[in-house]
Amino acid sequence: MTKIAVLPCDGAGKEVVPEAIKVLRAAGANFEFEEFEVNADQYLRTGEPIPAAVWPQLLLADSILFGAVGDPRVNDAAYLAGVLLRLRFELDLYVNLRPARLYDDRLSPLRREDRRKIDLLIVRENTEGLYVGMGGRFKRGTDQEVAIQEDLNTALGVSRIVEYAFGVAHREVVMVDKSNAMTYAGALWQERWKAIAEKHPNIKTRHLYVDAAAMQLVRDPTQFEVIVTGNLFGDVLSDLTAELIGGMGIAPSANINPESKRGLFEPVHGTAPDIAGRALVNPIGAILSASMMVRHLGHSDMADAIEGAVKSAIRAGDCTRDLGGSLSTHEVGDAVSKRLRD
Ligand code: ATP
User: Fold this and answer.
1) Looking at residue 114, what is its pLDDT?
2) How far apart are CA 67 and CA 19, in angstroms?
């Protein structure tokens, strides 16, 4: 049986992941779900971000359903790095998919003519860039302090993410970088992208600097199909695209390795400490992440059904207040599940 490791972790994650599981069950998913205690309480007690006994269990799972990590009591970066970044790096989940699809016109802050058919995919490099934690601080705490944060880019890392983007695109791949300022890393991205584009003559290609990409995403997001970019720019631009389709509560993501088939699926949002624990958080981002998980596991009919149920619930106004509704977190889970059972 397909084994799903469940890591709700902290804050909003604890509220949205049970709703995603509820919806998966309503969709008929016959999976074995096993939840593990990876969270700030556990970290504060033991000092281990992921307990040593849990790690091998995560390696045995077919996929990981993930909530969000973070806690106001934990202010060292080692916790986030030891949970989410460790999973991404050590499982080599080098593809981070962040789709932005507008399910109802009313959810976009853009003018009516600019919101039609927003349906794009950000393919973010997930294992390199500024997130690898290389660098250091010299003369810390003095007026002469120097802080260095390295931006790691490898030929393998750049090539495989650009290849992946061409593999999923039907019309066009837009490569986003800042090669006019970041000349060394930018040159590597440019060279690999041009070489790979030549192997895909049927897919159009375009290049945008990240500042121009941000502007174009607001001006007319419907012009984009697939955007491929590095770790930092993908993180930033995907918050922007989440806002174009209804906000942080609705945006899903997948972290995958296409070769090993491993995957971790999580909403784009974090722990939402301002609203967590009051049944106000929107579970749709987590539910759509679960739908990405079943698609990755080969059940595309089930994934389509979940997406259809989400779209229908949103259009009927069966949603949390961030999307203009008045339902609680678990009522939204119920509303989506009901549509799958009917
Ligand atoms: P963290 O430090 O864990 O990243 P954060 O508050 O900085 O937390 P997010 O959790 O992404 O970052 O939240 C950003 C904003 O979006 C907050 O105002 C939050 O309330 C809102 N938000 C995040 N997730 C949801 C959700 N599931 N439903 C509704 N609003 C959300």
Assistant:
1) 62
2) 11
